[in-house]
Amino acid sequence: MLYRLLRPALFTLDAERAHGLALAALKRLPAAGAVKPELPIAVAGIEFPNPVGLAPGFDKNGEVFAQAPRLGFGFAEVGTLTPKPQAGNPKPRLFRLPQDRAVINRMGFNNTGMGEETSRRILRLRQQFPALVVGINVGANKDSPDRSRDYLTGVAVASQVLKATYVAINISSPNTPGLRDLQHGPALRELLAGCNEMRKSTPLFLKVAPDLDPGMIDEIAKASIDCKVDALIVSNTTISRPPLKSAHASESGGLSGAPLKPLALQRLRDFRAATGGALPLVGVGGIASAEDAWARIRAGASLVQLYSAMVYEGPGIARRIVRGMEALMRRDGFASVAEAVGSE
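-> structure tokens emitted (344 positions)
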């Protein structure tokens, strides 16, 4: 209710500035040492207290992931972090589409890098709150002469130095030119094989785009299974443009929020079919309610993530979704979330 009262004022601000204010507000909350396991589920050997996660992009530099459980999130994913600091694309680069309940971003992996300051902060919080499930999403610097090497470095630092619960490889952002080329062909298998060596025993997740044809879906699924990836995150933002009503509809970048929901749900079903259920899936894109999240679980996701919906629904959305999912689970006669995965 409070957020609904504040939202009109926040929406008068530039979207990126409002995001900065949200981070500043969360920093004032005490960190959470543990999360009550309301809907526990085990994925890739990790015990998640509930299946609702904070997607990367919100906490790019690992500043507030320890506060995320207080909002009801079962886990948080930091990043995307690149080996070197990166300013990202010119501003403005983040746009609300209120009539569509959507967001367009062309941030360009803006982050403080994986240097000493960032690493020290994340490691300190990881050591202080070891029970928290924290993924670290890694990417390549835009001007890197060897992007594959950037990913190997990122996976090594995230897993061995920062003690990530899992590491997510982001090769699906549309805002770094040429990055999505790593999603197919020999480049994909070489990258996954190299990252597999660098991660040691840390689970490795791969984040894919929704803008894929059937052949690429099958190729990614097979390569991920062969190279022992632990889970697929489906999906990133889309470069496609369904009919939109808002003033910023023509902005370039990745589209997220409500208009992405049908495409992201279909891609989840596609990857469930392509993997035959052999690989855990994380459903992302257009999730704004317990019903949305439950539909992803029934379609094959073991976990879900959200970010854009917080812009419109406020910081209490994760807690509402978790409680709603529990009611839906009981309604449908399941004793656990795991029982419902892929049951549609």
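Residues 2-340 form a domain with the TIM Barrel fold (CATH 3.20.20.70).
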